Amino acid sequence: MVVFSWLNRQLLKMEWLYDGVRAFVENVLKLDFESKIGGSVHFFIYDVIKIFILLSVLIFSISYIQSFFPPERTRKILGRFNGVTANILGALLGTVTPFCSCSSIPLFIGFTSAGLPIGVTFSFLISSPLVDLASVLLLASIFNWRIAIAYVVVGLILAVIGGTIISKARLEKYVEPFVFGNPMLEMEQEAMTRRDRINFGKYQVKDIIKKVWLYILIGVGIGAAIHNWIPENVIAAVLGQDKWYSVALATLVGIPMYADIFGTLPIAEALVYKGVGIGTALSFMMAVTALSLPSMIMLKKVVKTKLLVIFAGIVSVGILIIGYTFNAFGYLLL
């Protein structure tokens, strides 16, 4: 336990980086660490560096593993199963695809056009932006392992239940016809060498960092502002745990935004620090990543309005239930 605790502090929470950035702020920038400006600068530099380090290592590792499972092979594996088992596998597949919701939609189209049940592809579509291996470690680095694991579990449950409901409702007719007219090619991927897989991992790191870096900077900036400039009583008055509407409000606020989980984590961290319920903060994160307006607009191009409304309704109700449950019992995880 002592060794695990040390590794957790140094590798995930990066206490060495926290102390190093504090020394930089105090000795080089000549700012008081306890002041609002000094605290904000420290929060911004520390969180940005930590997130980019963890993100790069994790994306590379996940992509290296992913190189063994190209879409054709993945589709064949999923095609062997049906029912809830297939939904579970679809949701689990989403956890190893480090994509935002908009990036997941092309794979959703590919799987659907290749003949996979839409319930399975919707389980994938829900879990892919919501839960991935990188988010587990980042949540653990900000909060703790209990919250990180609980978040992953409820995210997967939401993906499986959502996909199962859509599957049982037989809503295939509400998918645009052109989606079924573009089947994936039946071809084996050329054998990749170890160097090919390493290059693929590097490419994925560059490609994803290029897509998310701005959202991370914005998210950390907002988190720094909340953490050091907005009084705790102001946030508590709006989103305090005693406010019955806090989860619903956080969910509604998150929907118009567009970011991935890496950009929303620093905001959630600052909100919880200010006394906001962990369920309220997680509901905000989940709404931004799974129900963002841009991703809904993109999804509308491949499904009809009724299916889009059903999908958004299922995910919204799931997020609300998860948020209120975490607010009620989250103290057991902190």
Automatic annotation (TrEMBL):
One of its GO terms (cellular component) is plasma membrane. PANTHER family: PERMEASE RV2963-RELATED. Keywords: Cell membrane, Membrane, Transmembrane, Transmembrane helix. It is a multi-pass membrane protein. The lineage of its organism: Bacteria, Bacillati, Bacillota, Clostridia, Peptostreptococcales. Belongs to the UPF0718 family. It comes from the Bacteria. Its main location: membrane. InterPro entries: DUF318, UPF0718_permease. It is found in: Cell membrane. It comes from Acidaminobacter hydrogenoformans DSM 2784. The chain crosses the membrane at residues 43-65, 86-109, 115-140, 147-166, 212-230, 242-259, 271-293, 305-326. Coiled coil: none annotated. This is Permease.
